Amino acid sequence: METAVSTLVLLPNTSNQIETFANSLISEIVNGNISAIETDYRLKAIENVIDKVRKNKEVKEAISNECDNYGKKQFNFGDATISLSSRSNYNYSKCAKWNELKGIEKDITEKRKKLETLMQSISNEIADVETGEMIQPAELLDSTKIISYKFIKSNL
To answer: What is the pLDDT of residues 19-74, one digit of tens each?
Structure first.
């Protein structure tokens, strides 16, 4: 019987295997041997699986507990060095001064975004009607086609 683990172990898990597999996929796509869209679609599906598993609170806890068994901040596992660290999150919203500064930051961000939108829409320098300051058009650095996938839930 096929299980999730029996499928997972088929994937590359060492630096050399990852490099070889990635280069092979790239070559197959570039040479037209496999559909670029189908390959990207499958990679996106795998990425979604990885995200769901890694974001699961119980899985995170299981990984953390297993790492604790090694008793070190850094250890080798397979072809990787695993480093453990921690991160703390703080709530600053109870401080009036912080809220004041956050409000100023929000106002400045909104003004900057409006200016950026204006700069993207003009092709020649214009004067700001309020200040007379000259506004230059934004320089387009590059433009990339975005491909996104929305997986349809099936009843299977």
So the answer is: 999 999 999 999 999 999 999 999 999 999 999 999 999 999 999 999 999 999 99
Contacts of residues 26-29 at CB distance under 8 Å and 24 or more positions apart, as own/partner, are: none
User: Residues 60-113: pLDDT tens digits?
Assistant: 999 999 999 999 999 999 889 999 999 999 999 999 999 999 999 999 999 999
**Alpha-carbon distance values, 54 to 58, 60, 148 (Å):** 9, 7, 21
Phi and psi (nearest 5°) for 151? -75, 135
Q: How far apart are alpha carbons 48 and 150 in whole angstroms? A: 11
Left (φ > 0), alpha (ψ -120 to 50) or beta: where does 16 sit?
Answer: alpha
What is the distance between the alpha carbons of residues 93 and 99, in angstroms, rounded to a whole number?
6
Structure tokens at 39: 């390959």
DSSP code of residue 33:
S
Please classify residue 7 by burial: count the beta carbons closer than 10 Å to its beta carbon, then call 0-12 exposed, 13-18 middle and 19+ buried. Answer: exposed
Going 81 to 82 to 84 to 88, the CA torsion angle's sign is positive
